[in-house]
Amino acid sequence: MTTTTNIESLWVFALASKCRAFTQENVACSLLIMFLAWFSMTLFYWAHPGGPAWGKFMFKRGSSSVPVNTPIPGPRGFPLIGNMNLMVSLAHRKIAAAAETCNAKRLMAFSLGDTRVIVTCNPDVAKEILNSSVFADRPVKESAYSLMFNRAIGFAPYGVYWRTLRRIAANHLFTPKQIKGAETQRLDIASQMVDMFGDHKEGFCVRQVLKRASLNNMMCSVFGREYKLNSLNNEVEELRDLVEEGYELLGMLNWTDHLPWLVDFDPQKIRSRCSKLVPKVNRFVGGIIAAHRAQNGEKNMDFVHVLLSLQGPDKLSDSDMIAVLWEMIFRGTDTVAVLIEWILARMVLHPDVRSRVHDELDKVVGRSRSVAESDLSGLVYLTAVIKEVLRLHPPGPLLSWARLAITDTTIDGYHVPEGTTAMVNMWAISRDPQVWKDPLEFMPDRFVSKEGEVEFSILGSDLRLAPFGSGRRVCPGKNLALTTVSFWVATLLHEFEWLPPSEQNYNNNKVDLSELLRLSCEMANPLTVKLRPRRKLSFSQ
Ligand code: HEM
Fold first, then answer.
1. Could you say which DSSP state residue 225 is in?
2. CDD domains of this UniProt entry (predicted)?
3. Given this model, what pLDDT does residue 25 score?
4. What is the pLDDT of residue 467?
5. For ligand 1, is residue 396 a contact (CB within 6 Å)?
6. Atom of ligand 1 nearest to the CA of 469
7. Residue 450: CB atoms within 10 Å
8. Residue ranges of the alpha helices (H) in 252-269?
9. Assigned domain for 122 exists
10. Which residues span the domain enclosing 400?
11. CA 226 to CA 217: how far, in whole Å?
12. Which of the residue ranges 80-84, 224-228, 471-475 would you say has the lowest mean pLDDT?
């Protein structure tokens, strides 16, 4: 970029130097020439399909090295900023609409300021991108750097360090044995949720309980700390505030990530908020690490102990450990709570589906006892319901965090240069009428496999629905997440009838499916319900 900028400005100065003397008129004339040159270059870049970042790149590359082929279609957006507007608010919907307009559902190019972006709304092209080793990296936002996430799995550059972290997490946090080992903890939290929900039968907003339950669950797996849902605890409150703040900062579209000339200004105050948050996270997580180090004797092997026990090349520095632990808490908390809220909302909205789930629970579990995790494999219809909710309301509609091309490559026949950011619009794919029959209908039956059919896997092999991503960077917490969500939802549905609040008690008793996209896509208006217990016996029986 610097080289071209210099060349661009040199000929302007050459022109200016023709002026004999630096009289006021000549200075003004030079400035005008410079402005006109800059303005015409800006328009020139902008005129390229995909907008200014693509135009600038093509101009800089000139006719050198790579043969020019057809440009990737895409909207131009605005001069200089390109299509920043697409990323504001419900980005997945805006991008899908733009791709439709440009007839570029397979592959569309657009610009976020100086950032070249490609996006696909097609499952085959999504597979090509996500499963390619070229896209095993992620673009790191300034906020992610500031919050140390570049040292955690999600944003660590593709390489030895990232591979080590994934291996450690896969071997010590996400193995089937480890997930099974946390069963009692999930059961305990589920029973606390049932007690809390049981105390609020009318006009009750479920989100806060779900978020607290999810946070307590991660606190237990990662930090080995156990907290009660119904009692206030300073440590949990502090961590919740830290997670909320981090969540908001990472979820924001940071203009300085894409417009380098804004870097010095920090117009959205993201940098200053990050710099206030980081010492608090260091103090909090560092304190937990220190407490674990000080422990003697019998240890309950939580993730902190695992990290502390690593030796040799796997050994992590304290600051890297803080980043890894903080990310796990951060990732595992909201996604799970957001998904459960969507599932419960759909249950309130579709009494026919709800009653089929209840029939299945009565048949497989029976009303005389509560759900056990061993029942989950028999709950075929409930599994289909969860998949259908993930199809219509994927927590990461754009798969949360994008990918970055490590080298030049070809996608869907188009040349994609190194350094291009790639996104997959999973939301658009999972609502595409060419991929799904009656895509906007809520029909869990589509996931109930018929005799002899293979069950539809949502774990990344079939890109028609891959809410956990796919390829090298696929979500490592997917099995843990699905076990937690399935067990908690089965329990909550087995214990209660989920109904809309009565009209006389609640003005707005409709389930509102409007979305709010932060880091995850959550319900814009939290779900409010009326609960009727289904089983007379207590939870433990
Ligand atoms: C419903 C719950 C969840 C959903 C929908 C979800 C979704 C995703 C998605 C879409 C990605 C990006 C995948 C890609 O680029 O191909 C991701 C990455 C990741 N997720 Fe999850 N996730 C969930 C739960 C969890 C949990 C419980 C944890 C851990 C406790 C977790 C940890 C991670 C990590 C560490 C990454 C980064 C992986 C990497 O870059 O190598 N997730 N997740």
1. -
2. CYP78 (cd11076)
3. 83
4. 98
5. yes
6. 16
7. 5
8. 255-258
9. no
10. 149-533
11. 8
12. 224-228
Contact of 52 with 74, CB cutoff 8 Å: no
The predicted pLDDT at position 331 comes to: 87
Assigned domain for 171 exists: yes
- Does any domain span residue 454? yes
Percentage of the chain exceeding pLDDT 90 = 67
For residue 213, report the distance from its CA to the centre of ligand 1, in Å.
19
Q: How far apart are CA 39 and CA 28, in angstroms?
A: 16
Pair of tokens at residue 305: 């102990």
Distance in Å, CA 473 to ligand 1 centroid? 9
Q: Which long-range contacts (CB under 8 A, 24 or more apart) does 178-182 make?
A: 179/479, 179/480, 179/483, 180/373, 182/217, 182/220, 182/221, 182/480
Tell me how far the alpha carbon of residue 478 lies from the centroid of ligand 1, in angstroms: 7
Please provide residue 9's backbone torsions phi and psi, each rounded to the nearest 5 degrees: -80, -25
Give the per-residue pLDDT at 297: 63
The CB of 467 under 6 Å from ligand 1? The reply is yes
What confidence tens digit (pLDDT) does each residue in 179-208 have? 999 999 999 999 999 999 988 767 788 999
In the prediction, which pLDDT does 17 show? 60
Q: What's the pTM value of the predicted model, to 2 decimals?
A: 0.92
Is 475 annotated as ligand-binding?
A: yes
Question: DSSP code of 71?
Answer: P
Pocket test for ligand 1, best of 127, 166, 475 (most atoms within 8 A of CB): 475
Give me 338's structure tokens: 């957001």
Residue 10, pLDDT > 80, answer no
DSSP code, position 156? S
474 lines ligand 1 (CB under 6 A): yes
Handedness of CA 425, 427, 433, 434 (dihedral sign): positive
Non-local CB neighbours of 528 within 8 Å, separated by 6+ positions: 203, 204, 205, 206, 501, 506, 508, 509
Question: Which atom of ligand 1 is the closest one to the Cα of 338?
Answer: 1
Distance, CA 383 to ligand 1 centroid (Å)?
19
Each residue's pLDDT tens digit, 125-173: 999 999 999 999 999 888 888 887 788 999 999 999 999 999 999 998 8
Q: What is the 3-state secondary structure (H, E, C) of 79-103?
A: CCCECHHHHCCCHHHHHHHHHHHCC
Which CATH number belongs to the domain containing residue 327 in this structure? Answer: 1.10.630.10
Amino acid symbol at 121: C
Contact 403, 421 (CB under 8 A): yes
The residue nearest atom 32 of ligand 1, judged by CA position, is: 477
Task: Report the pLDDT value the prediction gives residue 4, as an integer from 0 to 100.
Answer: 46
In whole numbers, what is the pLDDT of the chain averaged over residues?
Answer: 90
∠ CA 472-475-476, nearest 5°, is: 90
Confirm or reject: Cβ of 482 under 6 Å from ligand 1.
Answer: no
Residue 131 lies in a domain: no
**Ligand 1 within 6 A of 397 CB?**
no
End-to-end CA distance of the chain: 68
The residue whose CA is least distant from atom 31 of ligand 1 is: 477
Given a cut of 90, whether residue 68 has pLDDT beyond it is: no
Tens-digit pLDDT profile for residues 356-396: 999 999 999 999 999 999 999 999 999 999 999 999 999 99
| Of 468, 472, 484, 521, best ligand 1 pocket probe by most atoms within 8 Å of the beta carbon | 468
* Domain total in the chain: 1
